[in-house]
């Protein structure tokens, strides 16, 4: 289960990986998950087998295919995988749409340290200006308001919650324009 | 004639009550067991006075026999599935059901007060029956169990009027998000320990606040991820007497008022010695706990994502009294160096891998372990997942730390040799067993030949549990261990070239052990059958992973998974279809 998911994530690495061996051959790749007998080696050659195995085999994903290895409680494994996707991983990419723009963009929220940077990046990306943020009135002084969809599916104004909380709950961004945007700023 | 009389006089001189009082001072299970073997009269006195029983394998004895022998039973500990079940090597539904035990105890006159279960299947039905059957029930501890939902917990909360302890460690619980916490009645004020960190769902924040407020004896509180930062602050205000704290969500804005409130709340908690949780955390948040670090003896950051080397070392530098540390390998070798120079009282260290897909990012190597061994001479328990290990490092560690009781090393790449010499790690582990005369538990990894088992057989005289994976060359390896380790109780082997010859050489040995697990080895069905025939006191189970319609009865066929254990009650009746008991 976890093994195959991890393997898929790494597929794009395999294409560029340097290995000994003919293209199209991949020693440990297709072994059935529970069939790890082939990993045992007779070791008459005193350690050489072990070494050559690791020389031929530079693809780390094969390890993920061994059932029950590394020996970590499944509770811990499951817990960790989901958290890794959430908060560490290779970045938190979210779609950004701008009302009236022909196509969407994608940004990595992890790259920014706070709202100021994020908003500046959005301004650059879409060539517009966001107004001043205030808790009372939202973004005033502009036709635009940055909003995001949170975990519950609600559309929220960017900037209300602490940054860390924002990046873990933000699913996508939308820059609203015009009357809709101004409507957000007024006490609902 | 006279001599005879005087001897019997001595034995029977003390009335039963006196002996019973003497036995009260004997708490260790092993000692109690020995006492009961001295003579019939001692057996009788011991069994009436025994209150705590530990059963390491729930299938080794029946609840009826337990109840018959120990009518005064108050505390029962039961373990179900074999250890390798933790790593998905045992199919679900294999067994280990607690219901028959609770049912039998409920029918009897036993006044059960404490139940501690590990790796068992616990249904909501069992929890409900438990909660209604024992008036004085005080303590429920579930470790690595499954099969229940928050409904079962609600029954425990609602019905156990004098509940002191509800401790859920790493269980897979189906969270119905019901208001189980609200099921604790207003009259319940007896809680001493509450741990629900493993629950995944939302909880009623008001309910937990009120519960903590009315529990003046609460010493241990471990929250789940759903408990936010400002609730934590409120709970700490209500419970400054806490000794053990597990935080839930620990994310906050350092400029916020909540942060300041928490800081002052924490400073009032002068008794906290044990800290865990941080299930959601951002690096800058950790400074809030610096005030209590100086007195910490246990710190568990192994579930805290996103804390890297520097964050961790900054924190640990405040923890000079630490005795037990559980951490992720993001701390790095350098970070372990900081631990070594700061935590001079360290006895137990667990370093877990943060990279589980094996992309080669494990951040600790033999260097970190060597630093620790040099700086922490009191170290006696180790669990270490690392990128690589060398013989030289292990030899150094063995020299620096001769007091190991538990030594579990996991090199993430199976069969990896010493990267410097390309040799097997036989000499390194050999040094460990030779130096650590009190070693009770050992887990091996890396490239290993039969030689390491020769060393283990020769030197590991106190060894009780041994875990082996991808090691050895021939049956000799397993034989060295079986012949040499006189105190061996649990042996678990996977993916090793050990076969029938090793298995069958000394069948009587298994009666002196609790259990043997062998998977993906060379033992055949025929070998297992022979063993089962020769030893009726053992239960030899063959576990078939895949539904094999035509399960071949060919004796020459290798057995994928075999689990055998000694038992006084014959073959269990609750085995599922995929388990064949020979």
From TrEMBL, chain A:
Domain of life where this protein originates: Eukaryota
Transmembrane feature ranges: none
The entry's keywords: Auxin signaling pathway, Nucleus, Repressor, Transcription, Transcription regulation
Annotated PB1 domain residues: 91-178
One GO BP annotation of this record: auxin-activated signaling pathway
Region (Disordered): 16-65
A cellular component term, taken from the record's GO annotations: nucleus
InterPro entries: AUX/IAA_dom (IPR033389), AUX_IAA (IPR003311), PB1-like (IPR053793)
Compartments (UniProt record): Nucleus
Assembly and interaction partners: Homodimers and heterodimers.
Function summary: Aux/IAA proteins are short-lived transcriptional factors that function as repressors of early auxin response genes at low auxin concentrations.
The family this protein is said to belong to: Belongs to the Aux/IAA family.
Protein name stated in the entry: Auxin-responsive protein
TrEMBL record, chain B:
Name of this protein: Protein AUXIN SIGNALING F-BOX 2-like
PANTHER family documented for this protein: F-BOX/TPR REPEAT PROTEIN POF3, PROTEIN AUXIN SIGNALING F-BOX 3
Keyword Nucleus set for record: yes
SMART domains: FBOX (SM00256), LRR_CC (SM00367)
Superkingdom field: Eukaryota
Pathway assigned to this chain's UniProt record: Protein modification; protein ubiquitination
Organism this protein belongs to: Durio zibethinus (Durian)
Protein's cellular compartments: Nucleus
InterPro entries: COI1_F-box, F-box_dom, Leu-rich_rpt, Leu-rich_rpt_Cys-con_subtyp, LRR_dom_sf, Transp_inhibit
Record-annotated F-box domain positions: 14-55
Gene: LOC111299492
């Amino acid at each position: 289960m976890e093994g195959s998911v991890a393997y898929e994530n790494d597929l794009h690495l395999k294409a560029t990986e340097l290995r000994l061996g003919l293209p199209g051959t991949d020693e440990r790749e297709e072994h059935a998950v529970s069939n790890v007998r082939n990993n045992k080696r007779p070791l008459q050659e005193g350690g050489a087998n072990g070494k050559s195995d690791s020389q031929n085999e530079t693809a780390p994903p094969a390890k993920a295919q061994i059932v029950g290895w590394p020996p970590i409680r499944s509770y811990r494994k499951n817990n960790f995988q989901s958290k890794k996707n959430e908060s560490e991983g290779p970045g938190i990419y979210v779609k950004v749409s701008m009302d009236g723009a022909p196509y969407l963009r994608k940004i990595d929220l992890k790259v920014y340290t706070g709202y100021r940077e994020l908003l500046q990046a959005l301004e650059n990306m879409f060539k517009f200006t966001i107004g001043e943020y205030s808790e009372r009135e939202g973004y005033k002084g502009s036709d635009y308001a940055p909003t995001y969809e949170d975990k519950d599916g609600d559309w929220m104004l960017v900037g209300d919650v602490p940054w860390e909380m924002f990046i873990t709950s933000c699913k996508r961004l939308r820059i609203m324009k015009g009357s809709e945007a101004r409507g957000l700023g007024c006490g609902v | 004639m006279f001599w005879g009389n005087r001897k019997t006089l001595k034995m029977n001189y003390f009335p039963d009550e006196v002996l019973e009082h003497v036995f009260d001072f004997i708490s260790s299970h092993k000692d109690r067991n020995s006492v009961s073997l001295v003579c019939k009269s001692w057996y009788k006195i011991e069994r009436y006075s025994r209150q705590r029983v530990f059963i390491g394998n729930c299938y080794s004895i029946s609840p009826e026999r337990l109840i018959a022998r120990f009518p005064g039973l108050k505390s029962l500990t039961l373990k179900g599935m074999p250890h390798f079940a933790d790593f998905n090597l045992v199919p679900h539904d294999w067994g280990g059901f607690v219901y028959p035990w609770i049912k039998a105890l409920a029918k009897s006159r036993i006044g059960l007060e404490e139940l501690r279960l590990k790796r068992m299947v616990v249904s909501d039905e069992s929890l409900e029956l438990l909660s209604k059957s024992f008036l004085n029930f005080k303590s429920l501890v579930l470790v690595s169990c499954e099969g229940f939902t928050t409904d079962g917990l609600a029954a425990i909360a609602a019905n156990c009027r004098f509940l002191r302890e509800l401790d859920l460690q790493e269980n897979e619980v189906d969270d119905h998000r019901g208001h189980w916490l609200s099921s604790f009645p207003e009259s319940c004020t007896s809680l001493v320990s509450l741990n629900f960190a493993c629950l995944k769902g939302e909880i009623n924040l008001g309910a937990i606040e009120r519960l903590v407020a009315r529990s003046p004896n609460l010493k241990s509180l471990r929250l789940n991820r759903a408990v936010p930062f400002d609730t934590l602050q409120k709970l700490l205000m209500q419970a400054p007497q806490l000794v053990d704290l597990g935080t839930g969500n620990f994310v906050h804005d350092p400029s916020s008022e909540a942060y300041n409130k928490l800081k002052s709340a924490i400073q009032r908690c002068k008794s906290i010695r044990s800290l865990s949780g941080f299930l959601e955390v951002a690096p800058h948040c950790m400074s809030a706990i610096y005030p209590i670090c100086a007195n910490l003896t246990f710190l568990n950051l192994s579930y805290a994502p996103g804390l890297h080397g520097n964050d961790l070392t900054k924190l640990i530098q405040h923890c000079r009294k630490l005795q037990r540390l559980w951490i992720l390998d993001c701390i790095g070798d350098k970070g372990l160096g900081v631990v070594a120079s700061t935590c001079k009282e360290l006895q137990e260290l667990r370093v877990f891998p943060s990279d589980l897909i094996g992309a080669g990012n494990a951040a600790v190597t033999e260097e970190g372990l060597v630093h620790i061994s040099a700086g922490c001479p009191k170290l006696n328990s180790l669990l270490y997942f690392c990128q690589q290990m060398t013989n030289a490092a292990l030899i150094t560690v063995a020299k620096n730390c001769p007091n190991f009781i538990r030594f579990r090393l996991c090199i993430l790449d199976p069969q990896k040799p010493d990267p410097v010499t390309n040799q097997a790690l036989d000499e390194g582990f050999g040094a460990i067993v030779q130096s650590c005369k009190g070693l009770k538990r050992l887990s091996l990894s890396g490239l290993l030949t039969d030689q390491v088992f020769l060393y283990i057989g020769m030197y590991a005289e106190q060894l009780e549990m041994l875990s082996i994976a991808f090691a050895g060359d021939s049956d000799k390896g397993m034989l060295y261990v079986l012949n040499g380790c006189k105190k061996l109780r649990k042996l678990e082997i996977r993916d090793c070239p050990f076969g029938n010859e090793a298995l069958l050489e000394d069948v009587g040995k298994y009666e002196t052990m609790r259990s043997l697990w062998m998977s993906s080895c060379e033992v055949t069905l025929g070998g297992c059958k022979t063993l089962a025939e020769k030893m009726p006191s053992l239960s030899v189970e063959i576990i078939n992973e895949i539904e094999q319609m035509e399960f071949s009865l060919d004796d020459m066929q290798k057995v994928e998974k075999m689990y055998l254990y000694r038992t006084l009650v014959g073959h269990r009746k609750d085995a599922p279809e995929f388990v064949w008991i020979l």
